[in-house]
């Protein structure tokens, strides 16, 4: 064989440097290629390229971001709602406190006004009685009222012991209250005003009189002061507009709840001459 004959080479063939290209999907749909080159061998050989398609993660990421944003918004909404509720509760508490203070102020003002009106009415009543007494007891040559009282005082001393039946019960009741206190609006059992005492006395015998002096002064038959009987109702002022009442007990005397200074007293007709009288029994 010729020395020039072709002898197969025992050299190992060169290996081409493989390259693997990874085409991966990234956020936003942009594809990038990653080339991995072999560590050995020259670069003249034709590279072998493989392309791997990687799934994109945009959809899953967007869903997660959206869910997180929704949760954040819900928390914010809950916080706003709670803040509004707290503010409303605070406003309601302030309004309730203000309303309570206003109610207390009005109640105190009303109480003071009622006390002032009561004091004014009592002062007016005392002034009216004083004026009436001054007029009735003035020396005018013998007024009809003074003459009637004097006549009644002299002629009724014998009738004091003649009270019987219901009249005797009325007289006994009012005499038993002598010494009790006078209180405006009082109806017993230990304090009275004038009409309250008269009403209670007649109630013991089953007679239901009106509550106030004006009505009591017209509750029965008008009688002359010169013809009084025990149990008659005496009044001061006009019939139907009387400002004071008492019960005639005979002997020229009456029992009545006079005022806060004297209370319930038994007095002579001349002490405070009445204007008129009515007979109920």
Keywords:
281 residues, alpha+beta, endopeptidase fold (from Nostoc punctiforme), rod-shaped
- What is the strand content? 15-25%
Q: Specify the CATH class of the domain at 143-279.
A: Alpha Beta
- What value does the average pLDDT take? 77
Question: In CATH terms, what is the architecture of the domain at 143-279?
Answer: Alpha-Beta Complex
**Shape category:** rod-shaped
CATH topology of the domain at 143-279: endopeptidase fold (from Nostoc punctiforme)
> What oligomeric state do the depicted chains represent?
single chain
Structural class: alpha+beta
Q: What does the largest sheet look like?
A: 6 strands, antiparallel
CATH superfamily of the domain at 143-279: endopeptidase domain like (from Nostoc punctiforme)
Roughly how much helix do the residues carry, as a percent range? Answer: 40-55%
Poorly predicted runs: 17-41, 132-161
Number of helices: 5
Tell me the distance between the termini: 181 Å
Strand order of the largest sheet: 6-11-7-8-9-10
The number of strands is: 11
Return Rg in Å. 58 Å
* Topology pattern, helix = H, strand = E: EEEHHHEEHHEEEEEE
């Amino acid at each position: 064989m010729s020395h020039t004959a072709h002898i197969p080479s025992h050299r190992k063939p060169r290996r081409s440097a493989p390259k693997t290209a990874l085409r991966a999907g990234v956020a936003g749909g942009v594809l990038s290629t990653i080339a991995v080159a072999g560590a050995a061998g020259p670069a003249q050989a034709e590279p072998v390229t493989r392309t791997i398609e990687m799934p994109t993660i945009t959809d899953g990421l967007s869903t997660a971001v959206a869910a997180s944003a929704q949760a954040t918004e819900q928390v914010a909404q809950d916080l706003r709602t709670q803040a509004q509720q707290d503010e409303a509760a605070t406003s309601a508490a302030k309004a309730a406190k203000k309303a309570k203070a206003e109610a207390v102020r009005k109640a105190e003002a009303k109480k003071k006004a009622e006390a002032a009106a009561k004091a004014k009415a009592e002062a007016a009543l005392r002034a009216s009685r004083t004026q009436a007494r001054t007029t009735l007891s003035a020396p005018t040559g013998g007024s009809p009222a003074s003459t009637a009282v004097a006549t009644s005082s002299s002629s009724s001393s014998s009738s004091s012991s003649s009270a019987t039946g219901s009249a005797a019960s009325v007289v006994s009741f009012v005499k038993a209250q002598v010494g009790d206190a006078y209180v405006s609006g009082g109806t017993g059992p230990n304090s009275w005003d004038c009409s309250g005492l008269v009403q209670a006395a007649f109630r013991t015998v089953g007679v239901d009189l009106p509550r106030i002096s004006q009505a009591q002064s017209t509750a029965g038959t008008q009688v002359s002061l010169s013809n009084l009987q025990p149990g008659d109702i005496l009044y001061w002022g006009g019939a139907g507009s009387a400002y004071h009442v008492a019960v005639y007990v005979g002997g020229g005397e009456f029992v009545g709840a006079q005022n806060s200074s004297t209370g319930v007293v038994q007095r002579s007709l001349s002490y405070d001459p009445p204007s008129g009288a009515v007979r109920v029994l």
